[in-house]
Amino acid sequence: MRRKGLPIMASQPLAADQPASVDLGPAVALSCRECGERFPLGPIFACESCFGPLEATYDLPLGDPEGLRKKIEAGPTNLWRYAPLLPVPADVASKPNLNPGWTKLVKADRLAAELGITGGLYIKDDSGNPTHSFKDRVVAQAVEAARAFGFTTLSCSSTGNLAGAIGAAAARAGFRSCVFIPHDLEQGKVVMAAVYGGEVVAIKGTYDDVNRFCSELIGDPLGEGWGFVNVNLRPYYAEGSKTLAYEICEQLGWQLPDQLVIPIASGSQLTKIDKGLQELIKLGLVEDKPYKIFGAQAEGCSPVSTAFKAGHDVVRPQKPDTIAKSLAIGNPADGPYVLDIARRTGGAVEDVNDPQIVAAIKLLARTEGIFAETAGGVTVGVTRKLVENGLLDPALTTVVLNTGDGLKTLDAVAPTTGPSVTIAPSLEAFREAGLAG
Ligand SMILES: *Cc1c(COP(=O)(O)O)cnc(C)c1O
Predict the structure, then answer these.
(1) CB–CB of 407/374 below 8 Å?
(2) Is the pTM above the cut of 0.85?
(3) Which ligand 1 atom sits closest to the C-alpha of 238?
(4) Centroid of ligand 1 to alpha carbon of 269 (angstroms)
(5) 133-186 per-position pLDDT tens digit
(6) Cβ(164) – ligand 1 distance below 6 Å
(7) Where along the chain do its domains lie?
(8) What is the rounded end-to-end Cα distance, in angstroms, of the chain?
(9) What whole-number distance in Å separates Cα of residue 404 and Cα of residue 372?
(10) pLDDT tens digits, 2-37
(11) Distance (Å, whole) CA 431 – CA 437
(12) DSSP secondary structure string, 19-44?
């Protein structure tokens, strides 16, 4: 049966004999973030009563923190070590997938010295994931939800990295994929989206236009049977970002950091990192202490930082114009929740302009040997700004996220980066260049 016009139940999987309950591990229900109403696990994303966003709720394994810690530590060196805290079946690690996660937490002493941070600075470097961005984490959860609900095609609206992560995950797990991207993305993102063999549709418009298009598609027979990872599978997809919180704390020796600097596109990642930290406290895996969450945006797409600075609760949409295309969402779905978290934890939301983003990419590269995409330039640039304006305490432990690989956004730095000099293959020419010694 097709349920056109009903946004919440649209795009049902094709399988008519869908089981009444699905095996998604400890996830027991979806609950509305606005009114709290609960719904059975399914490919739905908005509350039937108030249209608020739905999120996964769990029977968390409380009561034996030592046992849980040992179980996690004995698990695989990828994000499935946290399967008991994710909406996935218990045997997920044995299924064909890209096994993302467990990326490096790099102690960044040379960058810290440049920024004047004395309390310990770390880069959580998610460029090390299989498709070189943090998106492999969220897609891995969505694939398991798609499997459980009987979808056979994976889709999404993407600012670039998500399209690549879906292409690769679909190829590995044997799904069809058809993804939608704005027409003006970086070549590296487009090639990475297409090389895995899935369909890539470039739309003449911004990400927000693409997203609106996908919302229409999901309520239309054309999109029937499709799992849109960041729409009808969003409650499961989003949970993947919690693994960043788990990994950071485990890699710090099961401790909360004092401060985190996190990029904002839709704001989903930031809100779920906070959720992950709260779960670790509740589970007794880390000692409860205050932490501050800082959000980072590009000035050319800064709807959340603009609202934060103005003291508003409502995020007014913007038309993006920035080199940080992976973060170029002008109407961020989780914007209001990001504001709540930044204010509740005593953090802030800040932005940097394009030249500052480029300078920060180069700063991170020359101090730590990490080549970040523009989103990493945004977080490092914002960290610098937060130290300068006194909002970030340099004496506290700080974790800055790098969510993607610089090889995907070469255009951002190529105009100002290249050979020091081009010379003839002779010692004389090299001597004249003045680089010896
Ligand atoms: C998608 C993305 C983010 C954050 O996305 P949210 O929508 O805020 O969860 C951050 N960095 C990169 C590189 C991304 O691709």
Answers:
(1) no
(2) yes
(3) 9
(4) 7
(5) 999 999 999 999 999 999 999 999 999 999 999 999 999 999 999 999 999 999
(6) no
(7) 1-59, 104-131+241-416, 135-237
(8) 76
(9) 6
(10) 333 333 344 444 344 444 578 888 999 999 999 999
(11) 10
(12) -SS---TTEEEEEETTT--EE-SSS-
- In this prediction, residue 25 carries a pLDDT of 86
The per-residue pLDDT for 437 is 84
Q: Architecture of domain 135-237 in CATH?
A: 3-Layer(aba) Sandwich (3.40)
- Ligand 1 atom with the smallest distance to the CA of 329 is 7
Structural domain 104-131+241-416, CATH architecture: 3-Layer(aba) Sandwich (3.40)
To the nearest 10°, the Cα dihedral for 68, 56, 376, 77?
Answer: 30
Indicate which atom in ligand 1 lies nearest the CA of residue 264: 8
- Which residue reads 């930290």 in tokens? 277
Identify the residue whose C-alpha is closest to ligand 1 atom 7: 266
**Ligand 1 atom closest to Cα of residue 267:** 8
Under 8 Å CB-to-CB from 253, ≥6 apart: which residues?
Answer: none
Domain 104-131+241-416 matches domain 135-237 at the CATH topology level: yes
Atom 3 of ligand 1: nearest residue by CA position: 265
The residues, ordered by sequence, that sit 6+ positions from 83 with a Cβ below 8 Å of its Cβ are 25, 75, 90, 92, 93
